[in-house]
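As described in the Methods, two query proteins were run sequentially through the folding procedure within a single session, without resetting any intermediate state between them. The first query and its resulting structure tokens are shown here.
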Amino acid sequence: MAKSRARKKREHLLRNGGRDVLLSRGSSPSFSTHERMTKSKKEILNKRKYKNPYDHTAFDDKDFFVPAKAS
């Protein structure tokens, strides 16, 4: 791959007695920034696997809407 213009300038400064600008870059964090936050498809399917599909007492009908009759 070709060198970028900025990389060429950094190397030129180092050769001619300039300071190393790579030293002023921040360090990487101690934790991984690439961790998955949501559950994977496999985890979702495993959670669903142990539910009883015939257990109707676990049904949550809080969002069920029945319009009132007009009098």
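Immediately afterward, the second query was submitted; its sequence and tokens are:
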Amino acid sequence: MQEKNTKLAIVTGGGSGIGLAITEKFVAHNIRTIIIGRDRQKLDAAKDRLGALCIPVAADLSDLGAIPALVQDITTRYGRIDILVNNAGINLKKPFTEVTDQEFQQILLTNLTAVFALSREVVKQMAHSGSGAIINISSMAAQYGIPKVIAYTASKSAIEGMTKAMAVELSPQGIRVNCIAPGFIATDMSAKALDNDPERKQKVLSRTPMGMLGAPADIGDAALFLAGDAARYITGVVLPVDGGNSIGF
């Protein structure tokens, strides 16, 4: 069970990239953080790097039927869940007409339906204590149109709508719900995409007023703020952390 004054967080996709950066910030501020992901090796590497406050849990969140038991197990072992960060997500870059029904559904399952199912089960636990903070992760794809990512865009636009609906329904119960919309962040995944496509990289930088990619830690700082008492009167917002990209000309 958790020690007094130590909050408990869950970060999905916490083994790498933005999820790992969020976990790093949480752990540095004495928040015990359970990282959920499919890749046990990545999770264990994160644990080795971040120490005792980082707790790896291997699970496939697209297996919706297993989510209630997963959340029950976490609360039984570690106590009350104070913070949930829905960060796990997958992308598919493909021309619109070539995306199959199955591919579209798979992206929605992982990026949207699993977020709903996990949030629902965590909220049942948070409601007992009358407090909690949920942070969903969106994308620039929900702020403006980006070609060849139709399923991803649909999922992230839905996440932003769901954030607002959740916030209105859950805030009276003491559960705040907010969303971060990262701009173009320098991760292994984005580096692979942008370095192989110099034209796209140039476009990204030219429409970002600050003229540079963000760092994963920038998203970590935003998540730490939204999860904490400094944001106690903030709910239902979508916060772009993007160097001005979403308003860039």
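Residues 51 and 194 are 32 Å apart (CA to CA). We note this only descriptively and draw no conclusion about the first query from it.
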